[in-house]
Amino acid sequence: MNTNENATRRKRKGETTKSKLTAIAMDLFQRKGFAAVGLNELCSAGDLPKGSIYYHFPKGKNDIAIAVVEQAKQEIGEGIRQAGAASDSLDSFIAALVQGFAQNLVQSDYEKGCPVSTLALELSAQEAEIGAAISACYAHWQSLAADRFVAFGMDEQKANDLAQFSFCALEGALILARTQKSLHPLDRVQHHLSNYLK
Amino acid sequence: MNTNENATRRKRKGETTKSKLTAIAMDLFQRKGFAAVGLNELCSAGDLPKGSIYYHFPKGKNDIAIAVVEQAKQEIGEGIRQAGAASDSLDSFIAALVQGFAQNLVQSDYEKGCPVSTLALELSAQEAEIGAAISACYAHWQSLAADRFVAFGMDEQKANDLAQFSFCALEGALILARTQKSLHPLDRVQHHLSNYLK
DNA sequence: ATTTTTATGACGACTGGTCTATATAAAATA
DNA sequence: TATTTTATATAGACCAGTCGTCATAAAAAT
């Protein structure tokens, strides 16, 4: 019992250290990119000793990128699910999705859009393993959205096709919104997607 | 006369060195990102001595990024203009645009999409001057596209709005195409934009 | 008490961007 | 033509910072 308690506490501590690191990495990678963030910066940002990294991520920096992608896959996947559950129409679903990203943009002073796209552009061509993780992540999100589209009466093939199209438009809007420091592109994309997805 | 010739040759040589550097930087930044490409790599890729960089780009690496953005602004701007001139309908205009990017993707084994987006994500939040250049670049492209839309009978406000929407969809499609190493997202975006832009 | 797991930070080999000092070529002047 | 002045180009030193390793410490389990 005593041993059990300690075991779980220890394990939990280790887990929080690891997930704390991923959270910080997700934040910094988004703002500055993968290559521009050093391990030292990562550690000091979380008051963690440097050696910890190679305990939790034996393969080094690339391992962190993968963990970030997995984490984003889950988090945003959950966001999509919640947006779907809270919506009773296609329009409100799209609105809810856009709303989530808009909030992140504003709260981060337009430094944080999609946590994966920076990694995608920097690494997908260079690091096959990370590229695969990103590809899977994007596919997951699209599939979740498509599920919702189907729930609103769309046939499956069309749903997948339009989920991909919506994904592209959103992803592009996030880049533009960041460079312009404005929600306007996001708003317009929401409007046009609402119009088009029928 | 002799002196004149030498003067222009010298100047031209300097210009080619500089533009050679920008071209190489544009290529490498696209594939690996800004921070991941070192000045050493840039030089050796073009058989240029390292010291030259700070003659042509006194403010250092950031200056190179700005030159790349300006160059991309012109080159792709020209591409948009040509696509417009060669098209007699909205559909063929969009097809021509997509075609250009598709070619780049395939020829680079899906390593080169938009030469600016990587810089946008890495730097727009960190380096104000580069951010401004990127913002202007994007605005320029959208305005060129909107001009074409107007030429095909669209009213101006709608043209600007839809040019932005198209830009977002395309930009997103380029990211997805790179991660999937497939032209499919680009094809679908072309199809849906053709459908929607009326 | 001994072994296993978890955690740590100093260290090294190396690369990063930047800058100053120097060399080469062209123009200008005498 | 000879010589000075200017523009263009290059080389290499510099230090801060990079990632990754490893010998060890602390904690837990046996």
How does this model look, in words?
The structure is a homodimer of 198-residue chains. Chain A has 198 residues and is mainly α. Chain A has a single domain (2-196), classed as Orthogonal Bundle (Tetracycline Repressor, domain 2). Helices cover 79% and strands 0% of the residues of chain A. Chain A is built from nine helices and no strands. Chain A has helices at 2-32, 39-45, 50-56, 61-85, 90-107, 117-123, 128-151, 156-180, 184-196. In chain A, helix 5 (90-107) packs antiparallel against helix 9 (184-196), helix 7 (128-151) crosses helix 8 (156-180) and helix 8 packs antiparallel against helix 9. The termini of chain A are far apart. Chain A binds chain B through residues 31-36, 109-111, 113, 117-118, 120-122, 124-126, 131, 134-135, 138, 161-162, 164-165, 167-173, 175-176, 178-180, 185, 188-189, 192, 195-196, and chain B through 31-36, 109-111, 113, 117-118, 120-122, 124-126, 131, 134-135, 138, 161-162, 164-165, 167-173, 175-176, 178-180, 185, 188-189, 192, 195-196. Chain B binds a DNA duplex (30 and 30 nucleotides) through helix 1 and helix 3.
